[in-house]
TrEMBL record, chains A, B:
Protein name from the UniProt record: 3-dehydroshikimate dehydratase
Gene Ontology molecular function, alphabetical: 3-dehydroshikimate dehydratase activity; isomerase activity; metal ion binding
SUPFAM superfamilies in alphabetical order: Glyoxalase/Bleomycin resistance protein/Dihydroxybiphenyl dioxygenase, Xylose isomerase-like
Ligand binding (a divalent metal cation): 134, 165, 191, 239
Amino acid sequence: MRRSIATVSLSGTLPEKLEAIAAARFDGVEIFEPDLTGFPGRPRDIRDMAADLGLTIELFQPFRNAEGLGPAAFQRTLHRLERKLDLMEELGAPLMLVCSNVEPDAIDDDGLAAEQLRAMAERAGARGIRLGYEALAWGTHVSTFDHAWRLVERADHPHLGLILDSFHTLALPHDWSGIADLPGERIFFVQLADAPRLDMATLMLSRHHRCLPGQGELNVGGFTEAVLRAGYTGPLSLEIFNDALRSAPTRQTAKDGMRSLLHVEEQVRRVEAARRILSDGVAETKSIATAPRRVELFDPPTPARLDGVAFVEFAVNHAAQAKLADELKRLGFRRLGRHRSKDVDLYGMGDIRFVLNAEPHSTAHSYYLLHGASVCAIAYEVDDPLRAVGRAEAFGCPRFEGRVGPNELSLPGIRSIGGELVYFTRRRADGSIDFETDFLLDDGGAAQPDAAHRIDHIAQVLPEGALDAAILFHRAVLDLEPEPVVVLADPFGLVRSRAISDQRRRVRFPLNIASGRNTSAARSVSTYLGAGVHHIALETSDLFAAAERLRATGVAILPIPANYYDDLAARFDLDEDLLATMTRLNILYDRQGDGEFFQLYTQPFEGRFFFELVERRGGYDQYGAANASIRMAASSQLGAHDTLVG
Amino acid sequence: MRRSIATVSLSGTLPEKLEAIAAARFDGVEIFEPDLTGFPGRPRDIRDMAADLGLTIELFQPFRNAEGLGPAAFQRTLHRLERKLDLMEELGAPLMLVCSNVEPDAIDDDGLAAEQLRAMAERAGARGIRLGYEALAWGTHVSTFDHAWRLVERADHPHLGLILDSFHTLALPHDWSGIADLPGERIFFVQLADAPRLDMATLMLSRHHRCLPGQGELNVGGFTEAVLRAGYTGPLSLEIFNDALRSAPTRQTAKDGMRSLLHVEEQVRRVEAARRILSDGVAETKSIATAPRRVELFDPPTPARLDGVAFVEFAVNHAAQAKLADELKRLGFRRLGRHRSKDVDLYGMGDIRFVLNAEPHSTAHSYYLLHGASVCAIAYEVDDPLRAVGRAEAFGCPRFEGRVGPNELSLPGIRSIGGELVYFTRRRADGSIDFETDFLLDDGGAAQPDAAHRIDHIAQVLPEGALDAAILFHRAVLDLEPEPVVVLADPFGLVRSRAISDQRRRVRFPLNIASGRNTSAARSVSTYLGAGVHHIALETSDLFAAAERLRATGVAILPIPANYYDDLAARFDLDEDLLATMTRLNILYDRQGDGEFFQLYTQPFEGRFFFELVERRGGYDQYGAANASIRMAASSQLGAHDTLVG
């Protein structure tokens, strides 16, 4: 596929945008007119710049409110059109986007509109320029792709074709299955954008909340597959109007945009494969199964099978290493071993592995200097680490090579978009995880029953505006899927939270964005420097026993207000003894259908991250969002208390 | 009036909220249950705290999904109700807000709902507690105040009354004129909130975009007048769900909230006065003109008549003073005089007066140290400066007393919400402005024709989240009215702009909020420290002549891209010579009906603020928003160029 992006999708001046687009290896670009109007050079300068960068100028846009006009107004349109065709000749743009009229006084007459489109196409054709007509979802009379197509068909001019846009098509409750039946050669251009499903007017959603495909909730993959089935062979082009992207770093947006297009292409492959299965033996008029596709789609290594989090690595110095080791021991962890050549300790409990890295001059050390004691890497247990890294690289993630001592294992790893490291490791035939070979293992020690046996979820805090990019990264690279957005109320601001997880729930990451600077989430991590792990939830099969053990070993537990338990008593029919025990042990409760959830929190380690212990019963599949406000209120209280006692 | 606020309207912990509410001199408070649930003490601690602070606990809220239930579900509601009545007894809250059921499976049966409300009122009454029933605008079956009233009337229990909320009433397209006909003693409580008119679902608007009365577009004054006409004598209570306020400084929100309630009360007086005029000689069933009102409304000094901006004061040091003086002279200003005792110069052109304050150890000096060369004060010409200050003080603005030398005038002034000074001054019988007596005036000098004669508008940049408070301040204190919001695209982010002005257009302030940190607006002022004047537009009667003069004197004019003029040629039927002259002089153009607008910009002074010259023809009444993107793109280009040349 040729890959393109509209300049409106990125922040910056037009030259900055073009450079970033080229650096992210797009083939082409749509020039959004206001970007050109504000550029202090001439259209030919942009033509030259794009050529130097190896970018094709695919399209010039938008030309508005052009059809369905009275005679005088249409004369003014033709005057305006000629001026813009002059510009396009100088720019070297072969195609103009003409969008359906949105003026309230547009004339509702398909014959008139088609005639005017034809007259315009005649003018454009005389210059060797083509026009693509696009239905805006809020067009006064023309708001659907099929209505736009009827006008194009009726106008019947070789220089007039259709432009399809996934947002305008998918945002309306309008059947789009007919797209595959369109004649592909009459589709002149295809724009892609995703969006969340928000309960607001389509115009507002489009202008401010579009997002990159894979970040929202529209079926962009299905739409694109239909377009290709129709026989379209032109570029796929991102056109994103999004408030956050308008002020986001230009190069990062371009990189994310490329990852998004690659993700769409893979989705198309999946839709095709599904269609092949369903159509087995069924005759289809236009089938991807019978007609060879005429474009090449991105074909990355398939996702490795994710079996869980193999280990979490903490960047520490010596003091923090000792302190965190003490905290972990109180939680029931044992020291499993020490690294052969580095100042790194391994702690474990059940299947949970924590690496405490205090090695000087290491990547972890740099991370420690920037962020303090914090999680600097996460390792996944997968069936094929090399395939996992290959896939990540195919999606534009740089491979990471750490320092490796003689006879030590080089863990395949990448840098995630926030700068953190992600490793891939696998379980060997003897049940051990391969990274453990680098550790001189301690002898067992008195094995007490484990308080917890696996990592349930790892909650992260991201800087404002970074959620969409993180969702796309996890979705494309790790094949995780996002869960619904929830909004949590901290005493000092709202926290938007969206978890991303695999189908088998082996890996769950609630990703949080704090809207204020004083929320407990924002205070606990360096949100201005990068993403940060906020808490790690450990799953236990008996939270009450575990809580008693934690009391005995002196782990500082987050105190939960008594009012919370009065409210629980009002909302749920809970046994009085159980409620009394929960009150004593600071255990919170949630219910979902027949599922029940019990959770408790430790107090933050150095005010930065904390641990959670959870017990899931009866298929409970959430994270206790109903209790998050209580946790944040209790945590902010703790901060106040901390200040009081110095 | 008793004045109250719901704790959900503010950020912080419950004790912080109560302290801020008391400090802003509210009489009472609504306790929002989650605030109490997250508080690590008991309800009685809050009762004691409120009593110590002199606050009445007016209401406990919300109690949800209580009516229209099947028998088993209603039994659970009664169980929940009893627990919450226990809590309210301990809290000392006399009234509970019960809001209409929003569950999809609520039963649509007024008789059942009324019966269940009556049963609940019976339980509450046994404890001496009253229930207020409120229709949520998105209630499944009950969504309007009159429907809620029919249920309350039908339930017919002395402990059950109606709660009215301006948001739920005004956000729907539902006739609310019947409010005045309700029996006032059956209205148990009144909540006030405003909102912008945004094209989104009412639920989303309510949860995230409510604002303080006077900040939005709902007729809260008319609503409140109707409530009082009905005979309601209870508190007016703010209930604001707003994302920005959830992370805003608690005390500032409380102060703004009080100002908002005072503004509403004055609006009620105005509605009453208008009704008195209209009802002169007309018999009304319930008339404010015949029935004495039973509550006292806030009665501030009436607004002074605003005749324009008398002067703008710049904080400078000696170097900046000389540099700015040079810039002003090139613009056509003359030095009019020097302050009798301070290091302060006065410059003027036409009716425009600029004060350049380099006095050490002054307020201006502190401002200079914080913000660099910048506008530190604005003085208004009014008919009665003391009344203007008296009104501002009544609305909670602290009076400012500067250092005054012997025989010098003490200008009445206040501190605005951003910390800037606002002075009030008046024109004397001889035509001079009174503040000029403090200056030793220079002899005239060669008077050339003025390039500009008055200040057209002063554009300011506010920190994110501060727009609503600024709108309310200007509306309440200075009797200005907001114009519609426009969204402008800077290459590095969106800029939301809302102008506020007086009816006679003597004073116009476009207020801007930049969503990114790199927009030209955000870069030019210290948005993290406080508000800042971004540019000052001077009105001229012949911009072309003025532009030629500026060329001659060497003022650096913002260069406008040639592409802009090509676009003008496409959009408007402009004379070619005119267009060529505009291109040469960097003059921008806009049209609105028959009105025309010509404008040009100077390059920023020390990268911070700049001047604009404007010519309005034929009643043009805007600010050239269509050109703002071009100005911002050109300005960002300038920044890049500045960097290149060092």
